[in-house]
Design brief:
The chain is of the alpha/beta class and 230 residues long. It is 51% helix and 14% strand. The protein is built from ten helices and eight strands. The strands form two sheets. The protein has a four-stranded parallel beta sheet, sandwiched between helices. The chain has a four-stranded parallel beta sheet with strand order 6-5-7-8, sandwiched between helices. β1, α1 and β2 form a beta-alpha-beta unit. The longest helix is centred in the N-terminal third of the chain and has 19 residues. The relative contact order is 0.17.
């Protein structure tokens, strides 16, 4: 069994789901009281949020790269970044480690491609929906993202940071997300990327006829396969 290093805390709500999903899947595979070998650095999310607001991506990259180095030094055989948005600085992290980095877009794109889907709605933080790092990453993998208009992006972003990251789940937020998905479906979306690791706390596959691609769940499965050497 390999040891996984998790860069977490962005937010704690989604990091909990990673930890539980990974351990439950490892236990299911191995039986008994087996659990995953995990090292975790849970950063102060407020520091990362302030870097985001200030456009100080290098500052956020420095924090995460240093923590990734520490996880490697502590014995991690691979590093997982338990958030979509901060994959914006994935290269700065990989440049500072020598162990594998489990990139979230690799597992998400592989599942979408396996279903023969080429156009997907992309929901996430405004950084994820508007910046090129995520959209270009999908395009490079043969997938065309469709994003909401700017006003809708702002409300999706607000709900993530002011509600979901704080563990607040409301019916009004759920209705807004589902309405947005329907609008993107009418624009040609064949599926939906839940491109923020908190969104799966609010909506799930039972809420829509379009296939959902829950990035936190898919990334967790990627982690399990790495840990078990599959």
């Amino acid at each position: 069994m390999k040891t996984l290093g998790i860069l977490g805390g962005m937010s704690p709500e989604s990091t909990v789901s990673y930890y539980l999903n990974i351990n439950r899947a490892v236990n299911q595979a191995l039986g008994g009281n087996a659990s995953a070998k995990i090292l975790m650095s849970s950063v102060n999310f407020e520091e990362i949020v302030q870097c985001q607001k200030q456009g100080n991506w290098q500052g956020a990259a420095d924090i995460l790269a240093e923590q990734a180095r520490l996880l490697e030094q502590a014995g991690a055989d691979g590093i997982l970044l338990a958030t979509n948005t901060m994959h914006k600085v994935a290269k700065q992290i990989t440049d500072n480690i020598s162990v594998p980095f489990l990139h979230i877009l690799d597992c998400v794109a592989a599942v979408i491609q396996a279903k023969g889907i080429t156009k997907v709605a992309l929901l996430g933080t405004q950084f994820t929906m508007s910046d090129n790092f995520y959209k270009d990453g999908l395009l490079e993998r043969g997938i065309t993202p469709i994003v909401p208009n700017e006003e809708t992006q702002q409300e999706i972003h607000r709900i993530i940071f002011e509600e979901l990251c704080l563990g607040k789940i409301t019916e009004s937020a759920k209705a807004f997300y589902l309405q947005t998905i329907q609008q993107l479906r009418e624009q040609g979306a064949e599926g939906v990327i839940l491109g923020c690791t908190e969104i799966g706390l609010l909506i799930n596959q039972n809420d829509s006829p379009l296939p959902f691609f829950d990035t936190a769940a898919l990334h967790s499965q990627m982690a399990v396969e790495f840990i078990l050497g599959q």
